[in-house]
Each structure stands twice: as structure tokens, then as C-alpha cells.
Amino acid sequence: MRAAVLTGPGALSVVSVPEPACGPGEVLVRMRGTGLCGSDLAVYAGRRPAPYLPWILGHEGTGRVEAVGAGVGGLRAGQDVVVEPDYCCLACADCLAGRTSACAGRAAVGLTVPGLLSEYVVAPAEFVWRIPAGLPPEDLVCVEPATVARAALRRSGISPGQSCLVTGAGSQGLLLCRALVEHGATVFVQEPNPARLDRARALGATPLPPDGNGVPYFFETSGAPGVAEQGLRRLARQGTAVLIGMNTAPLGVSPRDVVAGQLRIVGSMIYDHPGDFAGTIAALGSGTRPRLGAVVSDRYPLDDVRAAFEAAAGAPGKVWIDLSCGATKPPGTPGTGERTGFGCLRNRSSPRPSPVGTTGFEPATP
Description:
The chain is an alpha/beta fold. Helix content is 23%, strand content 26%. The chain starts with a strand and ends with a strand. It is globular and about 55 Å long. Helix 4 (143-156) packs across helix 5 and helix 4 packs across helix 9.
């Protein structure tokens, strides 16, 4: 099969890799599409090192069940699915308390274990979600980041009718604007890219006016240094800041500022299994408008994956890779090659492919 493989910073190509085969408790998925986000771009650029090279990127994926392993119930070949790409252990104290985002043994697809930018992938059945039939792939590649947005909204405690500021209108910020508007909040957005700002406006957000201070809620999605501090200064007393975007710069706010303002600062890391993903899946079939896919701006075929990564940083919306063409075997044929997925849900090792040539993989044939 073919996969997009990173061999160094900015060095991404489509190569032939062994087809995976699912074991007990696992599901083989023929991928249909994979979205790109900031964490993918960080690995691609080398700002976030891959665990090893060559490395398969991607974690926002949708596809169709090809085969299921022994002991898997509720899923069968031919069903459309999305992958929840954060495999928590389900056994530690945090998982048992429902805080799976804090699981110390969590495996992050595309970041700590190989990703979804390949024609076929294997995933633990607990993290493969059946979806309503007939939904466009543009909606489905947004399910994972939409769940991040919904979790941030839940953790904030914002109520319908209250106002908020969202900084950053990349794909994550756009999905958060959409979720907040749907929730009934009044959403102000700050974004320097005019095309992104227009897309946020189309989703129901309002550009932040120059005197836009005193908001009770602030959501930071850009991860740009200094932006969180600006937003904190715009908060009303007893306001809540929810930080989603990440960088490594120290937060330039003093304890005195936080105490005197009686501020609440919440770090919102991904989502908690299974409730947050289940809520997003349930909302997919509700007919809510605008659709998740309204944040999508660009689609690229797998062969143009490098161009997609280069374009994503400045794109006006979500960029996704279409994997629906050129599959290397017909639907319904179980995988028979070397296993590249988990042998077990709680196996945290990342199996390395057998070396072929100097890159670890063979070049894909056209």
C-alpha cells in the first residue's frame, strides 16, 4: 500500500509500505481522508521531533472498515468510521476517573505512534467510531478537531447568551467558533489573516472591535507567543481563559494579575474518552448547520501531500488529504502483510518497519 512518509524536516514523500493486518480487538480501516492540523505541521517542519524516521504522519482520519479482528463487536466490514486518535490505557487512575486526556500512557496517533496518512491502518476497536451514512468526507475529517473544540467549550463552563473572545481562526479556531455559536454564545474573533477572518464571520463570529475588552470568556487557539497574554488582558474580572494552542514560551502574566482579577485559567488538552467523541458523533446526524465541513478550504490527493503540508500553514481553512483513490487492493480483502498497528490496546511500543534500502521503505510505483 502507499503512505505519506516523513524522512526528515520538510522531507515528505509517498512510498510503498507493508499492508497492516488486524489482530484480536483491532480494526483494519481503508482510509478515505485525513485532515491536517498544527501538530502535524510541527512534526513536518521538525519543530516537534518524530519518534523515529521514517515516520507516518496524520491523526484526523476517516475511512471504511475493511476487516475486524477476533472479539470485536459492533463493527463489521463496509461500515463508515472515524478514528479517535488518542489511545488511552483505560486502566490508570485518570482514565478510571474519566480524565483520559491526562492518561500518562496515552498513545497519540501520528505523534507517538505511526499515523493515518496511509491507504490502510489498524486501530484498537475501542477507538473506532461508526458514523451516520452519507456524510461527506469534508465533515468527517473535521470530527477529531471538532471534538477538541467541544471539549474546550465543555471545560469552560460558558452558558448560552454569554460572550467570548476566540484568538486564532485557523481550522481549530474556526471549529471552536462554530461550536460556540451553535451553543448560543456571542463570539468575537481576533485573526490577522483576512481570509480566515471572513470564514469565521461566515460561521457567525464577529471581528473583535478595538475596544473589545471585558469579555467573560477567552479561548486561545493560535499557539502564537504573546497572544494568550493579550487575551488575558481583555478578560473581565472573574473571567475564564481556556488555552488550547501551545507554545513553549513562558506565560507572561503575574500571579498578582491572576489573583487581583480573580481569573480562572484552564488548559484544555484534547478530549476525554468516550464522552466527548460520542457527543460529536451524535451531533453529526442532527442536521446542525453550518456543517463541520464549512471550515474546509482545500483538498489534495495523496500524491500532492507535500504541497498540502506547505499550503496548510497559510490556508484560509482546513486542508485535508483525499486517500479515496488508488488503493492497492479491492474492498473487502483482509490485510495480509506485516503488522504495523498495535498488537494490543495497552502495548505502548511503536513497531518499526523492516528496513528496505536506505529510507526504510520502498518508493511507491506510479
